[in-house]
Model the fold of this input.
Amino acid sequence: MTRSFRGGVHPNDRKNFTAAKAIEVAPLPEKVVIPTRQHIGAPCSPIVKVGDLVKKGQVIAETQAFVSSPVHASISGKVAAIAEYPHPVFGSCSAIIIESDGKDEWVEGLPIKREWQSLESDELKDVIRLAGIVGMGGATFPTHVKMAPPKEKSIDMFILNGAECEPYLTADHRVMLEEADRVVTGMQIVMKALDVKQGYIGIEENKPDAIKVMREAVSGTAIKVVALQTKYPQGAEKTLIKVVADREVPSGGLPMDVGVVVQNVGTVVAVAEAVEKGLPLIERVTTVTGGAIAEPKNLRLRIGTTFAMAIELCGGFKEEPAKLIMGGPMMGMAQCSVDVPVIKGTSGILALSAADINSGDERPCIRCGRCVEACPMGLVPSMLSILGERGMYEAAKEKYDLLDCVECGSCVYTCPAKRNIVHYVKLAKAQNAAAAAKK
Amino acid sequence: MGEVKIEVGKLSVSASPHIRCDESIAKIMWMVNLALAPAALFSIYRFGLSALYTMVICIVAAIVTEYAIQKWQGKTITVSDGSAFLTGLLLAMNIPSTVPWYMPLFGSAVAIAVAKHTMGGLGFNIFNPALVGRAVLLASWPVAMTTWPTMASKLDGVTSATPLGILKLQGYAKLVEIFGDKMTMYKSLFFGSRSGSMGETAALLLILGGIFLIYRGYINWQVPVVMIGTVGVLTAVFGQDPIMHMMSGGLILGAFFMATDMVTIPITVKGQMVFAAGAGALTVLIRLLGGYPEGVCYAILLMNAVTPLIDLWLKPKKFGARR
Done:
């Protein structure tokens, strides 16, 4: 029997658009727009000037802050501009615009050849930090920070998140199928850096081929593949750990509080590339899909490729999209422009048609309880939405555990009154934070 | 290849998630109406055209009242969502078919105007509107509201007092005697050959409608099972005939269609079970000790009043709660 967790929903996953399509390497872009903020944490400052010639893999922005990650040029060419530019997460952000010289040359000394076994834990973490690797599932938390828990937390388990529970997305699925050995190598490196013996790969049952391929790839290692029930949000860290390890991350806590570190599939492949070849994170696999895309694909894109370019590679729009999203449809971020660039956390570019989004007018809560049933965190989402709507932000936090909400969107998906519960949750969290900052 | 462009302002931007399920308030409400339809049609068959008139008056009055109030308040008109229709239909099911025309009209208007819209409309009402309507009618016209029609059809409509009324006034032996024997009594109760409110008579059809709602996931099976079960257990404990009690009066209608009204009952399944047990116990209390022969209506209304307390008391178990 496959283990499961409480709550969750079963949206139509629509992965059939791209699940069977091999990763296609996008042609070299003529220009890339690379925001200096690719991650959660301190922004980087540009260390190149307009007019500079840069090579692929060259550091172009960095900072001394620990919770941060350097940014590299993803093509070789000339820095055409450094300016404020639309950003898929932060709205707008300073970005370095590079015009390609068409040569696509690596910076001097790259790539290298290195045995990962020859490096010690600290050296591995250093390589990962310098390679600019962040969580590629969408959260973009710097990977080296996640791998350096405080001393009092003892980590004994690593879980690779191959659930890919977001509908539409198939990037991780394709990477597991096509680069299974890289995934396993990356995972072994992370496990060595963390000094853990237990390693699991959690994959939803709707990807039987990936489960099979990964089982073959891990044979002879200590890593085990766990088949997970297909249910959203199986790939959320807390539910993943609950199901794979049967450990419950305490309220307000982090995975490391129960001795677990979780990473995304793309992230560990980036780790393998960085450690074995010395290559920084300058490209990623992104699923470009949705009912409004002419020819959905899984593309290997350079960081800084604009959404417009990626969509063009998929034949453009076949109908006018109602919504453009970075990431999956459940937790992704709605965009107002096709000019935003692909960043390290861009797991998907979704152009949803009006039929896909199935929206309706928001109505009052009828207390049907479907959100309570769906909430994987055991909250009362209906009350959070009502308190948020009325501006009772503190009550939401004190009495209804606002801060435990992971914003997975299961409640909104299932709500017959079409209430924008996550919107109210985000609003209440922001208002509480603002009020706390004032004090 | 043409360049991919979208005009500024064309894309809809909102917080996640960006996809929704197919359910809607209107769909749920019309499904509940549909689930009630067999029992409603049966009551027209049993009680004749007067039942149809009463039903139509209740439903039309509910819709017109809601329309008028929303128009007056400048709110979005939502009469097509089926909830006012449902209130009207449920009220009709809760009253005798023979009452004069102005009673259902008044009851329906009170249900919608007072019980629903003074509270803020759909979703905000504390009490089940149809039951408030019935309670007001019972208080205003007690005689008319407890005068039961003789059944119109040729089937064996037995008497014009309800089984619970006979039980209250004449005792259990008399009740069995009227039906002939116990088995005949149970069968009559189950298949609807007895007098009562329009929606009280056909236990079988109400249960089928309820099972449909459970299957669709609109109500939780725990509510009717716990409520009817509590009545069965308590009446047995007090030396009464539990089978007769479970099938009599408005219990089946109430347990499947009113104690499950999502707006006015607790939001967690645990809370709903407490609610159902409380409603069942109060029903027995009223039936056995109260002045009225039947207590489902007041039992549910009383539990409606404590629903916010139950919700505060029985929250779901939080993931990762620190012990």
